[in-house]
Amino acid sequence: MKTQDRYDQMIARFEREMPVAETELHYDNPFQLLVAVILSAQCTDKRVNMVTPALFAAYPDAAAMAQASADDILSYIHSVSYPNSKSRHLADMARMLDSEFGGVVPSDIDALQRLPGVGRKTANVVAAVVFDLPAMPVDTHVFRVSNRIGLTRNSKTPLETERTLVKHIPAEKLSTAHHWLILHGRYVCQARKPKCEACFLADICDYNLKALKKGGNQ
Fold it and tell me: CATH top-level class for 30-129?
């Protein structure tokens, strides 16, 4: 199957099987999503959603969080992964957002990456989810699933994967496709044991087709 044909099939099937695809992080405004995404690095959305209600109640905006110390923030997020570094990042991020951006989360990906704790993936998530811009955040799920299906070929880095996906997926579908791949990786194409028997992409997936061929040759 040609690469673009595989992309077209993938998009058509996700549109049919998963017409609604959105982040599982809970948030009410751009600042809250930015905080939640920073907290979600190497941590489950479920765990993040457990700590953010109290955190957002205490610090509803950048101005409020800018007044907090890292230790203050740590008391709310101690149960997430890497809480010490994340509490420092949040404190520094809020101060810069408040002082340099007037507390308003920027939509520009380069401006977002100036904020402490905000890498390219986090910036792309905010751009795609909040501002509906044609961005493709690549996390571990997107990276793994793209390679398994055959959307990418031996991609070495998230940026390489991002560029390949952006090349083949229509701009207006990028933000939704990001959620498709994340949710598929989270619930079907899991890292340790993908559920190929329950996958609606199995017949066009490189990983599954190779496994079937290998099994048939035994």
Answer: mainly alpha
- Single out the residue of 165, 172, 105, 116 nearest to residue 139, CA to CA: 165
- 8: annotated active-site residue: no
> Considering 2, 28, 108, 139, which one is annotated as catalytic?
139
Do residues 178 and 126 touch, judged by C-beta distance below 8 A? no
Domain spanning 3-21+136-216 has what CATH number?
Answer: 1.10.1670.10
Residue 216 has pLDDT above 70, yes or no: no
Catalytic residue among 45, 61, 121, 214: 121
Is 45 annotated in the active site? no
Amino acid at 47: R
Q: What is the 3-state secondary structure (H, E, C) of 47-113?
A: HHHHHHHHHHHHCCCHHHHHCCCHHHHHHHHCCCCCHHHHHHHHHHHHHHHHHHCCCCCCCCHHHHC
What would the pLDDT profile of 134-162 be if each residue is shown by its tens digit?
A: 999 999 999 999 999 999 998 999 999 99
**What is the reported pLDDT for 212?**
84
User: Domain map of the chain by residue range?
Assistant: 3-21+136-216, 30-129
